[in-house]
Design goal:
single chain; 2 domains; three-stranded antiparallel β-sheet
Length: 322
């Protein structure tokens, strides 16, 4: 009788141990989640990461804590994400910078070697200089660089970053001789331009809006999107100025390490869909000139494949890949 009772207890304990992992997954997230932003605080990628972290918090009732890990055009941060435990407690903000740094080898893994949960938003690049500079158009700026090669500078958010590719393409498409200066993120880049340490920069639109209103310190010479934007309606596109073939701007996505458990991926995917429809998130996008371009699942995977092909082709064309 005692042996039978002990056997029953053991059976119950075994059942509890077998059920426990499932139960733990079902109550994810049970603790704060780290969200790696592979750029410096204050830049466009950082702003998107923080806004969407708040939207996820509202959906899942748990803190999503942004951790800025900048450097090497985002490769330091994305490499940390790639090497993190695939338990859903470390996520990251990704974008075209992930593709470019992986193709160049700065990130030592392919862009597909992560769990891509969703594409969140898209924005346009802009070309901006100090408001008191003599340049009123892209042609003015480019001509100045041709007259004094190497002296007229153009900032980017990092070597291998998407702004770097866009700046290289500007040199190629306009015949300009901009001396490219790379910074660890858009925030440091814009600080350098505002301080007069570089002549101008390629930025995401969200980064220049606070500085480009009437009386602001920056003059925006062009937006890179196909059409003028609602936030900068007076600024002409590159196409209007006779320039084509330059990357239009970055996208932002949410990803985790490869091999995340399916139940965790499902929770995050469903929360991301709801967060993308959140009024505060939508207001954030509108306020900062971003577009909601939500994609998930197979559509996200297909989009990533297209990005790898497009960015790889551009990098080869301008000599960044052999």
């Amino acid at each position: 009788m005692r042996r039978h009772a002990l056997g029953s207890v053991a059976a119950v304990m075994l059942a509890v141990l077998l059920i426990l992992p499932v139960w733990a997954q079902e109550r994810y997230p049970a603790k704060p989640v780290s969200v790696i932003v592979p750029m410096a605080p204050g830049g466009g990628t950082d702003m998107v990461g923080r806004a969407f972290a708040e939207a996820l918090k509202k959906q899942l009732g748990q803190s999503f804590v942004v951790e800025n890990v900048a450097g090497a055009g985002s490769a330091i941060g994305t490499t940390k994400l790639h090497g993190s435990k695939a338990d859903g407690y470390t996520l990251g903000i990704v974008g075209g910078f992930l593709v470019s740094t992986s193709l160049q080898g700065a990130a030592k893994f392919p862009a597909t070697d992560l769990t891509h949960i969703a594409r969140l938003s898209q924005e346009t690049f802009v070309l901006a200089v100090l408001a008191d500079s003599p340049w009123k158009t892209v042609a003015d700026y480019a001509e100045a660089s041709k007259k004094e090669p190497g002296k007229v500078t153009l900032g980017t958010a990092g070597s291998g970053a998407m702004t770097h590719l866009a700046a290289e393409a500007l040199n190629q498409k306009t015949g300009a001789k901009f001396n490219l200066i790379h910074f660890a993120g858009g925030a440091k880049e814009i600080t350098a331009v505002l301080g007069g340490h570089v002549s101008g920069g390629v930025f995401s639109q969200v980064e220049v809006i606070p500085h480009s209103a009437a009386g602001g310190k920056l003059r925006v010479l062009a937006v890179f999107s196909d059409k003028r934007t609602d936030k900068l309606p007076a600024v002409p596109t590159l196409k209007e100025q006779g320039i084509q073939g330059v990357p239009p701007g970055p996208w932002q996505g949410l990803a985790g390490p490869k091999g995340m458990p399916e139940p965790v991926k499902k929770v995050l995917a469903e929360a991301a869909v709801k967060a993308s429809e959140d009024r505060e998130w939508q207001d954030f996008l509108s306020m900062n000139g971003l577009t909601s371009t939500f994609l998930a699942g197979p559509e996200m995977d297909a989009f990533l494949g297209q990005e790898i092909e497009m960015i790889g082709g551009l990098m080869k064309a301008i000599g960044l890949l052999k």
